[in-house]
Design brief:
Length: 247
Amino acid sequence: MKAAPADQIRLLEVQALDQRLGQLDHKRKNLPENAEVERLNAELTQQRDLLIAAQTQESDTAREQTKAEQDVEQVRQRAARDQKRLDSGAVTSPKDLENLQHEIASLAKRQSDLEDVVLEVMERREAAQERAAELARRVEELQRKAAEAEERRATVLAEIDAEGAGAAKEREVIAGSVPDDLMKLYDKLRAQSGGVGAAKLYQKRCEGCRLELNITELNEVRAAAADEIVRCENCRRILVRTSDSGL
C-alpha cells in the first residue's frame, strides 16, 4: 500500500485524537464522582430502609399504646361502677359486699398493672419517635449530599462530552482527508492492537510497542520509498516516518 507522506502524518493526528477520545471515555467511566454518587445512594437506601423500620415500629407502638389505654379505661369504668354500687347501699348482703369489695381491689390492682404497661409502651414509642426523627434527618442530609454529588458529576460529564465532541469532529475532518484504504487498514489494526493502529518511528524506536528496530529492519525502512506504507516487524502497526525517526 502506498500513501503520500503527508497522509501518513495525518494518520498520526487521527491516532492522537483516537487516544484522546479513549482517555475521555475512560475518564467518563471512572470519575471519582461516580463512586461518590454510588456510595451516597447506597447509604441513602440503607438509611431509608432503617427509617421505614423505625416509622413502622412507632406506628405499631402507637396502636399498642391506644389498646393499652383502652384496657385501662375499661377497668377504670368497671371499677367506678362497682364503687358506685358499693356507695349507694344497694348491696346489703355481707357476702355480696365482700365480693364487691374484693372485685374493686382486684380491679385497682389490674388498673395499676395496665397503667404500668401504658408507661412502658409510651417509653418505647418515644424511643421509636426519636429514632425515626434522627433517621429522617440523616436521610435529608444524605439526599442533599447525593444531589450535590450528582450535580458535580453532571458538570464534569458535560465538560468531558464537550471536549469529546470537539475531538470527534476534528477526527472526522482529518480522517476525511486520509485515503480510504489507509484508514481502513488503520482502523483494522487499531481494533486488533489495543486502540493503536499507527505509531511514530522515533529515534529508531517504534512508539507503538516501544521496541527499537534492529539494523536489518532499519535498513528495510530506509530503503522503502517515502510513499510506501511500512509496518513494525514487532507489533505490525503502521510505522510513520518523520524527520526525527533516526534513519
